[in-house]
Structure prediction request, 564 residues.
Amino acid sequence: MLGDMSAPLAPPSFWILTVLASHRRHGYDILQAAATASDGRVSLKVPTLYAALERLEADGSIRADGEEIVNGRARRYFVITDEGAARLSEEVDAMEQAARAARVHLTTRRATFAFARAVMA
Amino acid sequence: MSPRGADAFERVLIWYPKWWREANADVLLGSMRDHAEHEGRSRPSRGETFSAFVNGVALHLDARVALWSSVVALVLSSGVWMLGLRDTYAGLATTGIAPVLTLVGVVALLRSRGWATPLRSLVALVVLVGALILAALAQLSWARGFALADAGVALSGLAAMWAPLVVGGWAVGGAGLALILDGALTHTRMPQWGRAVLAVVAGAVTAPVLGAGLISPVMSSSVAAVVAVVALRVAERPLAARARTPESSPSADSSPRPAQWLAWSSVAGGLVGLAYALTGSTWSVGATDSTVAMGHGITLSLAASIPLFAATGLCVPKRRGRIVVWGPLCVAVLAVAAVAVAYVFAPEWERMESWMTLSASLGGVALGWWVTPRLRGPLAARAAVGLAVGVAYMALVGITVIPSLALAVSVMGFIVAIRARRGVRVSSSHASNEGPASAALTA
Prediction:
């Protein structure tokens, strides 16, 4: 399975790890929390969610943490592992670095335009 | 687990393998019903049904499927060849079914290793099977066109379709390979455009090679053998890791010096054989012409390779037992000896043929015997892979591999001699590091 912990996280994996970082959650709860946290940008189908959970479990980023029956429906809970948290943290660092770089370039562009406008005026 | 009925939610489970359903069906159904209830639905959405189909079907493409599809491909290719079948069905088996099974093995292996997502695996499999069909049709078109041109008849029908079939197969195969490569590259931090460009270029370059190669029994069997060996290692890795006991030091037999001497003698003998093959006709009474000299030179080189097998046996670790090292090597020596005898009769193929066939059979036994104990997994699976690899060697490449070995004896002897020399250095440095008692033992 995916053994490369330094590989970039796909958006579904990123949001699954994000919502598990704070709480132990079951499948449907992860689905809802990921949709809310990503502002609707990640909308997983249930079978795709379970495929992603299996991949993350296989590479050691998450682990199953018990099952229970609620209203006659089975729920399996998942928690993030230390490896998963470290991987998410690395991904967030990389995103922040990219965002900082983009912000610097945007600020330079704004300053250049402001200067040009001032000169033209 | 709830009893399975005709419920719309439960119907989507039919795509999943039984082992998966037994472990996960209840939680998947629970989540799907929760989601449907939240959205006011009484059945799965189209998206969910499609997602269940893709993920469920792709789960069937695992290491086990990779293993058995490649073993069947190997047996099919080599079996048809060994039985000497040349009819349409035999052609369909070797250039149609076996390559498709090999392809299924490759894609299953990639999916089970996580190098391709479920959707990408299924799409790539369909696209690449399409490319193989186009490649096979192109081959058929070429053969028909050739026959028609020979008869002086204008090309028509399939015979006239060669160019579009080749271009179509190239484009479709390139797209399939690009899809696989792009998926594998998503595990790197390469930008999306870079991945796409690299995948398309690599796909376009490799598609014709693989397309033409996979429909040949030799190439598809070689790929299938690699897939079978890797799949067996992958399928049983966790089990093997748990079951592995601490291994004793992988030391070779006694001192590496005898191995060195044996390897150098093979280098010298190989050079003599090569020199005789190239110049024997000008000075040797026994070599009446250059063809006879070449045959005798090959015999000499092959005879010179026998010490090289002994050197290899001395250098190889014996942690699985001496019999699985010396057994196959002794059979390999017999295979080489049979070819050496065959080349005494060169160029009379009628007299050479039985010796060459004997050599191919012995080579297959040696290869199968060497491979089987070095694989991991259940004995039945290991034996099947070892047998399939041995039979494929025997049927497809056995007659051509060993004669070509004659030309490489000196080079291989040189490599083994150098490696054995390093062994000497390593063992003396170990001896000096481990104190006088250890040095005395080594000496």
Observations:
- The two ends of chain B are 67 Å apart (CA to CA).
